[in-house]
Design goal:
Length: about 180
Amino acid sequence: MGRRKLKIQRLESMKARQAKYSKRKTGLVKKAKELAILCDVDLALLLLSPTEKPTLFVGQDKDLSSVVERLSKLPLEEREERREYTMKLLKKIYANSDSEFDPRNSSLDSSNSLKLHEDQLKELKEKLAEKSRILRDWKNPNNVEDLSQIIIMEEHLIASLNRLRNNKWSAEDLET
């Protein structure tokens, strides 16, 4: 008895989705590992389960930061070209299928996409500047003049101490 072709569509039952995800995730990660080994490619695969649990696979002897760094070194225009090429491949794959997936709806046009990337970059730069300022405050607490920042630092220290106490108590409970 041969395998029958499955109609690719969203499963309604959360339990069925989770079961299908678990089975298919194993196969997908296995294929990604084989591709990374056979072709010696940098590969990063990020999956979020139906229950929002992440799975990250990075190719052989690589770490995520090196793969992302390599991607970030590509000019934005080249990344957009690669994205458009991938979308064309998806359209071709799904053209003759009964799938509900429509690759045209999963992407923005190039100008909107570029604007979105610019907005995201601006937001990330602002967050980086804020985190850098906070880090400077931690390195030189005597230079902090903003009372609200001192309160935030105090709350962070209290939360850290509470986590340490809880870890200590958990470790003591395991010993007894």
